[in-house]
Amino acid sequence: MHYDVIIIGGGVGGLAAAIRSAELGKKVAIIEKNEIGGECINRACIPSKTLIDTAKIVNKILKSPWIATSAKINYNLMNKFKDDIIEGIKDNLYQVINKHKIDLLSGKGEVKNEGEVIVNGKVYTYENLVIATGSEPLSLADFPLNGKNVVDPWTAMNMTNLPENIIIVGGGVAGVELATLFRALNKNVTIIELMPRLLPVPGIDIEIANEVKKRLEEKGVRIYVNTKSRIIKSDDKVIFQAQTPSSNEEISGDLAVITIGRKPVTDGIDLKAIKVETDQRGYIKVDNRARTSNSKVYAVGDVAGAPLSATKAWRQGIVAGDNIGNRNSQMPKYIPTSIFADLEIGVVGSTLEELKKNGINGREVKVNMKEIPRAWTLNETEGFLKIVIGEDNRILGANMIGENATEVINTITLAMELSLKIDDLYKVQFSHPTVSEIITEVVQRAIVGEIY
Ligand SMILES: Cc1cc2nc3c(=O)[nH]c(=O)nc-3n(C[C@H](O)[C@H](O)[C@H](O)COP(=O)(O)OP(=O)(O)OC[C@H]3O[C@@H](n4cnc5c(N)ncnc54)[C@H](O)[C@@H]3O)c2cc1C
């Protein structure tokens, strides 16, 4: 059977590429060895956010004494709710796949020769190939996964009985989100992070990292930063040897969740045979149109390297589909990051510190959430928005922590992607009272002075 486009991997990246190229008139097949939706829908973004959102609702009720009720999470019902959401989203995906007459081939896609993919022993030929096989947790020598009490995030989130003492290795995005969730479920949570700060991720301001640390510690999460650790025992208990800046101690828990270390999935795909180049860690090299070193082969999503986010995967899939369909399309300059800690975080572009290292000058303007009326009605006045403005008055970066930060950051991304100047934004009015007013306030302050 011959296809214009064969896509290996039915995660968000592969689906976006499939749908877009089918929309542009191509005959498309998508090969999936497991479940359509990949990591994001089945095991990562959607399940983790469903659980975290539940925890947040409970927290909100508990901190609102004027609501005359008590709230407690029923873990089993919450998990069922999560499973129903995943199924609902997948049902929609199947409908879109059918609508666009995309063939869904179940099985592992293998590539041995140029122009051919083998699925269940059957050979399919293609004009264009899209590799969208994602990434998977890496079992590291210091933290060997055992599927029992040293596990990856997904296994932890699906445990029917979560133990009392949970140690999270890695204080990055996944580590912070899981700590939020487990603490809300009343577990004793410890984070161990090698770097001197939480969220050591490009684009994330140190002030945000400090605020997150403060909030988590206030909620009772124990946090070790600047700490090199390794598991020395994982029988009944998991025991870590941890070297902090001032001491060498043993940290013990019932469960270790390892959030660091992933590797690209390219098993069964002979990249050398089809002349597709990778970087040193095995991630496929692509240009800003998702093209690999082979002009007929595209790669999208995690398998094509950082940032490992569904946000990027989806867009890269669209860009690949566009280019396969002869539409001129490139990756956007800015890909925002959202973090769903107990206070949301939205980040886009660079911090002032990062820009300075590259010889770019700028200035920061900051508005605190407590200066925004809507923050008060939502009973969540902590947090802030900080933007970095370049010498030409364009926004070069933004960091927000606070209620609805993951929504506000999208509006700022829009302004940045369209290269709007602060003066352009000054002409725009947002409705009152909304959290987005924090953008009008930051613009107001950047140009004249504060209103709130
Ligand atoms: C706990 C956690 C939370 C996260 N939360 C967020 C979030 O809130 N927002 C966000 O943007 N990102 C989030 N991410 C990251 C996000 O999940 C990934 O970046 C995204 O799923 C990558 O999509 P993908 O399509 O590249 O790969 P995947 O989703 O991994 O899909 C790849 C698919 O390819 C299939 N496959 C692999 N090899 C073959 C083969 N040879 N043949 C057939 N099929 C194959 C796999 O079965 C899989 O279904 C989170 C990650 C984690 C771990």
Automatic annotation (TrEMBL):
<comment type="similarity">
    <text>Belongs to the class-I pyridine nucleotide-disulfide oxidoreductase family.</text>
</comment>
<dbReference type="Pfam" id="PF02852">
    <property type="entry name" value="Pyr_redox_dim"/>
</dbReference>
<dbReference type="InterPro" id="IPR050151">
    <property type="entry name" value="Class-I_Pyr_Nuc-Dis_Oxidored"/>
</dbReference>
<dbReference type="Pfam" id="PF07992">
    <property type="entry name" value="Pyr_redox_2"/>
</dbReference>
<dbReference type="InterPro" id="IPR016156">
    <property type="entry name" value="FAD/NAD-linked_Rdtase_dimer_sf"/>
</dbReference>
<protein>
    <submittedName>
        <fullName>Dihydrolipoyl dehydrogenase</fullName>
        <ecNumber>1.8.1.4</ecNumber>
    </submittedName>
</protein>
<dbReference type="InterPro" id="IPR004099">
    <property type="entry name" value="Pyr_nucl-diS_OxRdtase_dimer"/>
</dbReference>
<feature type="domain" description="FAD/NAD(P)-binding">
    <location>
        <begin position="3"/>
        <end position="317"/>
    </location>
</feature>
<keyword id="KW-0520">NAD</keyword>
<dbReference type="InterPro" id="IPR001100">
    <property type="entry name" value="Pyr_nuc-diS_OxRdtase"/>
</dbReference>
<dbReference type="GO" id="GO:0004148">
    <property type="term" value="F:dihydrolipoyl dehydrogenase (NADH) activity"/>
</dbReference>
<feature type="domain" description="Pyridine nucleotide-disulphide oxidoreductase dimerisation">
    <location>
        <begin position="335"/>
        <end position="441"/>
    </location>
</feature>
<keyword id="KW-0274">FAD</keyword>
<dbReference type="GO" id="GO:0006103">
    <property type="term" value="P:2-oxoglutarate metabolic process"/>
</dbReference>
<keyword id="KW-0285">Flavoprotein</keyword>
<dbReference type="InterPro" id="IPR036188">
    <property type="entry name" value="FAD/NAD-bd_sf"/>
</dbReference>
<dbReference type="GO" id="GO:0050660">
    <property type="term" value="F:flavin adenine dinucleotide binding"/>
</dbReference>
<keyword id="KW-0560">Oxidoreductase</keyword>
<dbReference type="InterPro" id="IPR023753">
    <property type="entry name" value="FAD/NAD-binding_dom"/>
</dbReference>
